[in-house]
């Protein structure tokens, strides 16, 4: 095969994250609400009947489905379904940085305004409760940070004889920061807190 032909074909390639076709795609909305002349952030508490992460605090969101054209469509659809609101109750949507999880997920966060809290009727099969926290709380209070360490554990039949160093190979380890916010009796952590930390950084930069 001709090298120029190969390079011409590759010139038309649009780069993405290597292996991303094997990742599950999720999208969430960080909802801003206006309350008594102050901006609040709305959170959900997942239903205790949910198989995945029951009782945890999160933003509205979910997995991308074939019917979804874009990641933003996912965030909007899931917010509408979970909060029981109309699409026109969500406005001024903007993307945040997407997140590649070490657990095989790509999460696409968005921020937008939810107008009229009175129209919210949470889907009880997914959402046990909704609550809001003043944005000022997160601007004034730093999260506590803890670390989760990841170690490499090759499977039993791993071909150590094919790599330099064999069983003494110096594997790279990694760690992940876990952020925790405690507001009254609510604990916000995990992916929700990581997205929140990123959002607060952007807000501070724009102030």
Automatic annotation (TrEMBL):
The keyword Transmembrane helix does not apply. Its cofactor is Mn(2+); Mg(2+). Keywords: Hydrolase, Magnesium, Manganese, Metal-binding. PANTHER family: MITOCHONDRIAL COENZYME A DIPHOSPHATASE NUDT8, NUDIX HYDROLASE. Gene3D superfamilies: Nucleoside Triphosphate Pyrophosphohydrolase (3.90.79.10). One of its GO terms (molecular function) is coenzyme A diphosphatase activity. Pfam families: NUDIX (PF00293). This is CoA pyrophosphatase. Residues 23-157 form the Nudix hydrolase domain. The keyword Manganese applies. It comes from the Bacteria.
